[in-house]
Amino acid sequence: MNDHLQPDTPNPNINRNGLTPEYIEAGHKLREKLLYRIQMGDQELMTDFEKDPFLKLSDDQFNLLNRVPNNKMRSYKNILLSHNTLYSYAAEKGGLSPWQCHFISEKYAIMIEHAETISKLDQIHLYMIKEYSDPKIRKSNSGSLTIVEKAENYIEMNFAEDISMEEIARKIHVHPSHLMRAFKKEKGITISTYRNLRRMKEAKELILNSNLSMTEIAIMVGFSNPQYFSKFFKEVEGITPVEFKKLKKK
What we know:
By secondary structure, the protein is mainly α. The protein contains 12 helices and no strands. It has helices at residues 21-39, 45-51, 72-93, 98-114, 118-132, 147-158, 165-171, 176-187, 191-209, 214-221, 226-237, 241-249. It is globular, with a radius of gyration of 21 Å.
């Protein structure tokens, strides 16, 4: 993004709160452009975000981290929570399903609240920008998708929901038996396993970035049976979710 605030921006210290109206207006325009790029699923956004200091909230170009006196962590968390809502809304306008927006927003709200350092909040903000602007998880209206691709898209938009094979097949207008055979042939795994792997991907994020219990995480990502979640996790990773957390936290 090349439209960041220029060095000739009016001196931000000339008024009582340290920010001129021009400076604030320029910042709001930047935010609007950021939200638009999230809405459009701009694949160049991450590169520009990492380069432009005016998009990084912790650089505090607008004195946002002083909103809660003597508590920058609480200030930053409050700001990220509000941005989480803005990003979710922009992504939904761009084709992210309401269910996905709800799940992703809830996930990041938990991660934000459980973060313990400014650097961790920086990392979460990066995750948020990357996921909300990812075009691969948006709805596709392409009529050229194979039934396997349609099934993948449907699972992506509903992976934590308790939806039967018959319902998935009905949603993509194909016979369940044909869908099962085609999916196994192309992906080498069953739809059930594919969905559980997708759930596990989200579970790992929550294990590493929250203080939720393993039961809470299992239920949140779609495993109605926490014991099965732990068993499946160990089959894939070779260790239990608890062991995974201990290993990664070292």
